[in-house]
Amino acid sequence: MKIVLAAINAKYIHSNLAVYSLKAYARDPRVEIAEYTINQTKDEILGDLYRREPDLLCFSCYIWNLNYVEDLAVEFAKVCKTAKIWIGGPEVSYDPVETLKRLPVVEGIMKGEGEETFACLCRIFRDGEGEGKEEADRRERELEALSGITYRDREGRIRDHPWREPIDLSTVPFVYEQMEIPPHRIIYYESSRGCPFSCSYCLSSVDKKLRFRDLSMVKRELQYLIDREVPQVKFVDRTFNVSHSRALEIWEYLLEHDRGKTNFHFEVAADLLNEEELSLIARMRPGLIQLEIGVQSTNPATICEIRRRMDVERVKEVVSRIRKKRNVHQHLDLIAGLPFEDLDSFRRSFDQVYEMRPDQLQLGFLKVLKGSYMEEMQKSYGLVCQSRPPYEVLETRWLSYKDVLLLKGVEEMVEVYYNSGQFAHTLRRLEHFYDSPFRMFESLWEYYQGRDLQKIRHRREARYEILLAWAKEGFPEEEKEIRELLICDYYLRENAKNRPAFAGPCTVDKEKQRRFYEKEAEAGKYLPDCRGYDKNQLRRMTHLEYFSAADQYVLFDYFVKNPLNQDARVCKIDVEDMEEKRNEF
């Protein structure tokens, strides 16, 4: 019997830790993994699954792939009539009976944690002597005794069994030792499972049995990834710093064994970070770790209603302290559509989080997840959401659909102009013309809508042109300064040899550039690490610009980049180094 575990990921760079854990835990050589992405066509995936000829096909179901899985299951059953189809994952664990009624081609559902259940399922569907009555009777008896599943019996009746007790996390094998780590992929790692908190919008709050993987195992496994210079490891722990001593020990290990190559991503509660943890973080090299901090809202009534405990003022203090060290990327989240949060309240939440100056501000929208407390409260909150995944909010008692559409536009502007990090200096200046950061992005979105710009797929350079045109319309007297700030932002990220149209004529003539690079190739005053390079090599990896507002020549050095945001190093050039030497008589 051949067993195929199919994982349909959101992006190619994501690896599916869950299916690899299932295979490793089962220790069954018949199991093979088939990984795809939602960017592939269903026909392409269907064809590949068919060629694999599975006897048992299992799909892992999430909010981003459920539609794909359901369609593929239906079509696969048409072309492989003898194969058995089972599914599992968070998106089908909380309404398994309804799911089986909706999908008659699916034989069963694995609910909750899947490692032990899948291993048992593999043993039940072991290689037998055909499909005779004796074999069918055995499978039926063993399925009847198996917890953690909902399935159809031989008469087609749906049997809903109790959930399985959570497993010891240290019994799950370290999957990356058993596979070739794919290059350029984000590697996911789990050192704890479950969550002690009760946030009403989150499924992790359903699992109150917080469990930790043995620390000695964690250190050994992290060393394995460090030694292989994996670019990024994302911890999937829901609140990594819920145990201070454990967080400290892991972070100290990463600091001591850092080889300068791997970045580690953690989801933390900022208000729980203590002085010892903050001091340790301050000692880390830039880019060793990055932190994701879920603020969600700063409205006290909203925070209370979603059953979340958070000290907003402490969050502000911690984020500010970490930012000042300039060594850690901070990603802060907000959720639109929460109870008691109308448009004005969300504006205030946005402005407060924006003022914390995170490296990224994710403006997300409430997903009404099956099994969550938020789903139970839908009627009370007047919560209307999409009928299909991702079950995103459409309106609430406090937020109209018109408001949601506005927030979608603001989200797009924040993503393009703030989260990209490509317009940082320009945005800092433009903020002075608005009483609220939210209002600035709202105004920019109105400009896009007024010219139907949101319907166009823009090249990168066009985003600068649009921002300049919008600023000129609102603040014509500031055009020159805004243009120069845009030029600065552009060359911080772009080693462009063709000058963008919005920048106007070159500000440093060819003769001045020639003299500068000849001097620099000899003296190495501004690029000391590049001694030995000739003037042409230096020119190719740098850019010279004159900014009249500051009366300053600036060299953008692409040999050295900021590890957090990839900005080029910037050198202010002394005026005498740009001038021609004259003979004195």
What's the topology here?
Layout lengths: L2 E7 L7 H10 L4 E7 L4 H11 L3 E5 L5 H14 L4 E5 L1 H4 L2 H7 L5 E3 L4 H10 L8 H12 L4 E4 L5 E3 L26 E3 L2 E2 L17 E2 L2 H13 L4 E4 L8 H14 L5 E6 L6 H8 L6 E8 L3 H6 L6 H14 L3 E8 L6 H12 L5 E6 L7 H4 L1 H4 L2 E2 L7 E3 L5 H19 L4 H7 L6 H14 L9 H15 L4 H15 L16 H14 L11 H6 L1 E6 L4 E10 L6 E6 L12
Parallel strand pairs: 1-2, 1-3, 3-4, 4-5, 8-11, 11-12, 12-13, 13-14, 14-15
Antiparallel strand pairs: 5-6, 6-7, 9-10, 16-17, 18-19, 19-20
Helix pairs in contact: 1-6, 2-3, 8-9, 9-10, 16-18, 17-20, 19-20
Summarize the structure.
The chain has about 575 residues and is of the alpha/beta class.
What does this structure look like?
It is a single chain. By secondary structure, this protein is an alpha/beta fold. It has 22 helices and 20 strands. A 7-stranded mixed sheet has the order 2-1-3-4-5-6-7, sandwiched between helices. It has a 6-stranded parallel sheet with strand order 8-11-12-13-14-15. Helix 8 (215-227) runs parallel beside helix 9 and helix 19 (460-474) packs antiparallel against helix 20 (479-493).
What structural keywords apply?
7-stranded mixed β-sheet, globular, 585 residues, alpha/beta, 6-stranded parallel β-sheet, 22 helices
